[in-house]
Structure to design on (954 residues):
């Protein structure tokens, strides 16, 4: 549909031009885009799930390549794919269950009675297979649509009208279920802060000193929730050069009544011996438990480890990425403009690598992200509760399917 | 006999009887039995107790140190001490070893006091607050090297610095101060013990006082002013500027009548030092230089004429600057340059004069290497280093301290400067040095500290909080060059918000691979050895 495609292209352009910032916003917009995409999709009669998955993969690949560093986009695409597979599976299971029920009722045709056990057995076997070995959904997809179609066709009692009616209802059911689930996903993304903030009271006690760097919406709500419950604590905010978001963050915290001290990033090691806990947000959490975080947090994590201060990372589940990082400092990093560090004016001849004028060259490094390895992180707090870094890989299986790790359109297969 | 209680409560009788007199006096061997009232200032008519006494005999100020039980000493020296019981200890005068102040109970008369002899001043079992003002630190440090060895040992224990969370001391210091200090608002609780004043007010106040500062020599005033504005910064630069200012003032010095050169000059130097402290707290290198100067002054032979003494002091200062700073830097560079190989990537943090000399020298020798300069707010000293290195033709990489984990993987050596190295091997240096050393240690990159030996100190420190310097908080809230970042404007109105501008931090010794000094390349554990072996050298120059 041209409408949807133009929406997709618009979104891609916005991503490329970095007009959308922040993983939560990006995730929400991606989910909404995919929802409108799916609702406008016309599905064939058979192998609906497969078709749906292919179509979403195609769009997803476009979105991911628009901004590879923004892992939230890929996360949401993979979540939607997983949702599709799951909904398909549950519909099949429901159909199987429906078959069993139907076989017991007296209103059925004799034909059905005769046919059902055979088909239901195969359907049941297929469903059982899928339940026992979730990874082999591949095989399931090849078998299931047929077996899914058969029981329905048989349950219609051999009536062709009934057949088409139920096929329609099945088709609509899948799309309907998927869209419902995507709505739930969007809801989950929007409310992740509240879920995380609810756990604040367990972790923050009286007279604690908390250190944070830069600015994070999740951390802010976390701290304010603890404040609501009348826990009195102090916060040290490191300013987070070169964006200096720590300044605005500290102002907000102070205006809500928390004792806040703004320190420079260089003073982190000096102050951390007097800190009880380090609480930070993340840009993305990788499958090994490593964190892609705003620049400077690796230094903070090392200092915290040295002084045995717990390093707590708050992350919504939409930030959880099923990929394992390889050389993340380079591959999952963005280098930003040197103008944030240096004025171009005074060093203009040195910064121009193409001039060849013989003046010495200045290379300005301004990365946006840092990689914190999992052994430096004490705890992850997500909307599903608190987890150890070593548990993250297991969470992946709840939210993602292993077939979706590489989001690439199946080429003519 | 007037009977009243000492208001300072140091000489409070333990049984809190109101009849005890706080008193004391001089006990000359010839004047056996003579007692003059001294001790607490209250006796002498001042309405404020300083905690120190004034010797009733010679009028000298007592230092507030306590002495041992005097009863036995008195009876040994033949004084009639029947019936006296000793309940407290002594305050003793610095000047005259025979002067002391004590409090003894006489059970019969309900509290007369007697004088006693005190040859030694060792600390009592109950440690009294030893917090001294900076001027008296100088005075007591100048007790002279001609006392017994145990006194020498005790003297080597560094005196605690003035603690600013003690209200009394702060009040007294304020009354004595030349520069009006306005305490900064929104002070951080953790740093109550450090002075934090509002920067801008001090500047204008000092400017207006230029023609009124009688006791302060104009050269010293100029230097103090430059410290306040941040014009001179860096351990070596500040030390050299201060010594040269002292040189000027010594050249212009003439002894006033009825005063001895040594004492008067020392008190003048003390006065200058307190002025400089009010402008900006002393760095450890400056403290060592002042100690050297005072020792030279006190060890001047008494038979020298004034002009000879002055020329001797002036040349001493020149020698100190030359040997301990300039030549020391040359030696350090010569040693350190052997650690740079072709193809190295060297990382340095902020701006250190020794490291800069090293890099320029290595470049002149023709070694091929790259430099990574790590910089941080609020001083952004790395930018100036970058300018100077680029001006000399060295290719550099420039980054901010948050990105140090990103660049560290390609670095082969880290060279850092230091403001001081303490006796437990801790490196006391610009804030952020500890972060850089920690990340370098994580990446297994050797960290080399270039520090002249005169900056070593026998103090020890474990963390960066107990002793530090607080800079202007305004510099944290305002980001120069980025006017769009103005969220912290008006932070003074919010009582929950405090910007903190730490200037120094303490790097633990296990992050440091080697310290390069003018005595050679040593591990951090050898620093107290150098202090012990070569610290006496000051006296022999």
């Amino acid at each position: 549909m041209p409408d949807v495609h133009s929406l997709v292209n618009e979104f891609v352009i916005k991503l490329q031009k970095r007009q959308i910032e922040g993983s939560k916003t990006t995730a929400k917009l991606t989910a909404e885009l995919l929802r409108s995409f799916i609702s406008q999709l016309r599905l064939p009669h058979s192998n609906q799930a497969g078709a749906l998955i292919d179509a979403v993969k195609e769009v997803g690949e476009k979105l991911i390549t628009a901004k590879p560093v923004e892992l939230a986009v890929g996360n949401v695409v993979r979540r939607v794919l997983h949702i599709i597979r799951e909904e398909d599976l549950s519909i099949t299971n429901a159909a199987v269950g429906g078959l069993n029920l139907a076989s017991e009722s007296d209103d059925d045709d004799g034909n059905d009675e005769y046919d059902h056990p055979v088909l239901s057995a195969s359907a049941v076997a297929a469903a059982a297979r899928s339940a026992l070995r979730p990874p082999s959904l591949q095989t399931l997809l090849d078998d299931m649509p047929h077996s899914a179609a058969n029981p329905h066709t048989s349950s219609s009692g051999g009536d062709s009208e009934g057949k088409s009616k139920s096929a329609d209802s099945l088709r609509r059911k899948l799309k309907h279920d998927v869209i419902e689930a995507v709505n739930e996903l969007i809801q989950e993304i929007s409310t992740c802060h509240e879920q995380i903030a609810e756990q604040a009271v367990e972790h923050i006690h009286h007279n604690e000193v908390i250190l944070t760097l830069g600015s994070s919406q999740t951390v802010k709500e976390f701290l304010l929730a603890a404040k609501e419950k009348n826990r009195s604590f102090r916060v040290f905010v490191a300013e987070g050069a070169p964006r200096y978001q720590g300044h605005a963050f500290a102002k907000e915290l102070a205006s809500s009544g928390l004792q806040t001290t703004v320190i420079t990033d260089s003073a982190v090691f000096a102050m951390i011996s007097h800190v009880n806990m380090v609480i930070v947000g993340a840009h993305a959490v990788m499958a090994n438990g490593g964190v892609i975080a705003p620049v400077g947090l690796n230094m903070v994590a090392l200092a915290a480890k040295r002084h045995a201060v717990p390093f707590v990372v708050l992350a919504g589940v939409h930030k959880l990425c099923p990929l394992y990082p390889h050389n993340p400092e380079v591959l999952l990093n963005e280098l930003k403009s040197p103008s944030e560090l240096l004025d171009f004016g005074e060093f203009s001849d040195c910064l121009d690598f193409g001039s060849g004028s013989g003046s010495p060259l200045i290379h300005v490094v301004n990365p946006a992200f840092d990689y914190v390895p999992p052994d430096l992180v004490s705890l992850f707090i997500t909307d599903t509760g608190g987890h150890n870094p070593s548990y993250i890989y297991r969470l992946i299986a709840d939210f993602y399917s292993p077939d979706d790790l590489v989001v690439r359109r199946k080429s003519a297969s | 006999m007037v009977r009243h209680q000492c208001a300072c409560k140091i000489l409070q009788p333990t049984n809190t009887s109101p009849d005890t007199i706080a008193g004391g006096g001089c006990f000359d061997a010839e004047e056996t039995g003579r007692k003059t009232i001294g001790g607490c200032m209250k006796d002498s008519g001042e309405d404020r107790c300083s905690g120190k006494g004034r010797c009733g005999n010679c009028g000298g100020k007592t230092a507030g140190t306590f002495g041992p039980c005097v009863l036995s000493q008195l009876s040994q020296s033949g004084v009639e001490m029947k019936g006296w019981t000793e309940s407290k200890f002594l305050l003793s005068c610095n000047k005259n070893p025979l002067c002391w102040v004590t409090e003894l109970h006489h059970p019969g008369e309900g509290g007369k006091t007697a004088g006693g002899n005190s040859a030694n001043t060792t600390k009592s079992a109950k440690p009294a607050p030893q917090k001294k003002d900076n001027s008296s630190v100088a005075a007591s440090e100048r007790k002279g090297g001609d006392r017994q060895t145990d006194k020498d040992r005790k003297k080597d224990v560094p005196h605690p610095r003035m603690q600013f969370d003690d209200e009394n001391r702060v009040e007294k210091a304020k009354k004595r101060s030349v520069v009006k200090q306005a305490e900064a608002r929104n002070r951080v609780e953790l740093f109550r013990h450090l002075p934090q004043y509002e920067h801008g007010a001090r500047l204008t106040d000092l400017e207006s006082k230029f023609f009124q500062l009688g006791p302060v020599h104009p050269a010293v005033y100029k230097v103090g002013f430059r410290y306040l504005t941040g014009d001179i910064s860096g351990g070596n630069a500040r030390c050299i500027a201060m010594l040269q200012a002292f040189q000027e003032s010594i050249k212009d010095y003439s002894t006033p009548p009825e005063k001895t050169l040594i004492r008067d000059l020392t008190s003048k130097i003390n006065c200058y030092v307190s002025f400089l402290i009010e402008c900006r707290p002393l760095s450890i290198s400056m403290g060592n230089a002042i100690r050297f100067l005072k020792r030279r002054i006190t060890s001047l032979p008494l038979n020298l004429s004034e002009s000879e003494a002055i020329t001797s002091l002036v040349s001493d200062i020149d020698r100190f600057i030359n040997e301990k700073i300039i030549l020391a830097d040359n030696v350090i560079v010569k040693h350190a340059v052997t650690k740079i190989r072709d193809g190295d990537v060297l990382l340095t943090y902020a701006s250190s004069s020794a490291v800069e000399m090293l890099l320029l020298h290595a470049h002149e020798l023709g070694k091929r290497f790259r430099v990574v300069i790590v910089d941080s707010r609020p001083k952004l000293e790395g930018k100036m280093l970058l300018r100077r290195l680029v001006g000399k033709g060295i290719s550099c990489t420039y980054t901010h301290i948050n990105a140090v984990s990103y660049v560290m993987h390609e670095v082969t050596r880290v060279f850092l400067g230091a403001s001081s190295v303490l006796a437990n091997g801790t490196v006391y240096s610009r804030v952020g040095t500890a972060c850089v050393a920690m990340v370098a240690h994580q990446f297994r990159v050797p960290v080399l500290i270039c520090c002249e030996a005169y900056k070593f100190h026998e103090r020890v420190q474990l963390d960066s909080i107990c002793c530090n310097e607080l800079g202007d908080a305004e510099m944290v809230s305002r980001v120069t060059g980025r006017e769009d970042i103005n969220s912290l404007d008006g932070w003074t109105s919010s009582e929950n918000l405090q910007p903190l501008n730490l200037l120094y931090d303490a790097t633990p010794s296990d992050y440091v691979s080697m310290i390069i000094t003018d005595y050679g390349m040593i591990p951090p554990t050898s620093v107290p050895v150098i202090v012990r072996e070569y610290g006496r050298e000051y006296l022999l120059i």
Summary: Residues 361 and 461 of chain B are 33 Å apart (CA to CA). The two ends of chain B are 54 Å apart (CA to CA).
